[in-house]
Amino acid sequence: MRDPESQPMIEKLKEHFYIAECSLGDEPSRVIQKAREEAVESVSKIEYAGNFLTCVVRKLDTEEDNIMLYEIFSNHQADGHTYTMLQMPKGDLSQIKYLLPIVGNTIDGYYDIREITFGKRTKKFNDNGKVVPVQLPTLKIKIGSYHPFDKTYSKGISPRMANQIWTPDKLKEYVFDKSNNYTTGDDAALLATGDF
To answer: What is the rounded distance in angstroms from the CA atom of residue 25 to the CA atom of residue 18?
Structure first.
């Protein structure tokens, strides 16, 4: 029987591990495998109303009024803020409904997108010794509510995945299915698994 005082610690551990009750005599690796399959299955069954726009949030990224974006995305408090994407993604922007931030090479949830508008930025290029300012398009994304996934996914997640449009099937393939690989050695029983 669990001590009620340990529940906050268990909930925190669930962010990085699969936690399951394991009775004396049960094979721990089978219990954890079942918990993992149930968690991945529950996330992959969610019906999404549109596509995901991926973005990478770097430690020095700021909003227009110098708010540190990395901190608010890390704490899941980006609702109401604006993320400016400097490089335009390829694909149909009209079907994008969610922003999927990559923070510290991890994905742990997504945000609704309230609004997407176009902006511009000036980038200077060297043209035969002469500096030429060029106007480039940007996307300004007004962020809505945050929706957590069942756990933090880090396996295979990298900044190169940013500025892409993913269908729900691509999200499942690139994130959920990749993190579902589970193996144990014969000489070790895993009591918990997780990526940090």
So the answer is: 19
* Whether the Cβ atoms of residue 50 and residue 99 lie closer than 8 Å to each other: no
Residue 49: predicted pLDDT? 85
Across 42-51, 67-76, 136-145, least confident range: 42-51
- CA 76 – CA 85 distance, rounded (Å): 18
Query: How would residue 28 be classed by pLDDT, with cut points 50, 70 and 90?
Result: confident
**Residue 60: helix, strand or coil by DSSP?**
coil
Order of strands across the sheet with 51-57? 82-85, 130-153, 107-127, 96-103, 51-57, 165-166
Structure confidence at residue 183 (pLDDT)? 34
**Which residue, 80, 62, 91, 54, is CA-closest to 142?**
80
Phi and psi at 36, nearest 5°, equal -65, -45
